[in-house]
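Supplementary Note 3. Input sequence used for the single-chain structure prediction.
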Amino acid sequence: MTRISFLLDGERDELAVPNLVTTLIHKEVSVAQTTFWKQGKHLRTRRFHKLGRGYERTLKLVVRQAIDQDCDGVVAVIDRDKGKDARFAKLRAAREDGRAAQDRIPTAIGEANPHLEVWLLDDPKAVKTALGLHNSHEVPAVTKLDDSPKNTLDAMVRASSRAGEKFALIAGEIASEIDLGRCNHANHTGFADFADDVSAEFAGHIER
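The predicted structure, written as discrete structure tokens, is reproduced below.
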């Protein structure tokens, strides 16, 4: 089992992302700790040299916590919100900066464009299976969504037999069914880049 510390946008993602990583590395993942980006300003470290600011600082702190906790790695996923296109590049730069300071631990970083729900919706079969929908039920292509992916997926849940259940649980089950090969727009949503980064960072933990 691979122990990973996760850094995520919110509670909606806390089961989905670990299950996606499990699928990508073909190995069971144990969640050592989950931290949300909004908690970053409250994080503290026993090491006092400069760590930068904002999301970059939060990533470095979580990486150091993961090292202290003897985790096998860190996975950080952000939403690509409007007007914040530069965050992803800054996080990757912060990862390399940390490694230069000897913070060496597998650290995969992903950016969902625009939100994590788009990764789930891009595999219609996974959505239908988890929601118990008939195979003829239409799941809109993620490139043609007039509404936000969050609202689209929420509407599909409300129309299913699982209406009223906790979204995080449902999202986690959809993620468990995801097949990257069925995600036709993975390059557009950022999921392909995330899958590549997970493979590169956790190469030694992947089961074939």
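Strands lie at 2-8, 29-36, 73-79, 107-112. The chain has a mean pLDDT of 90.
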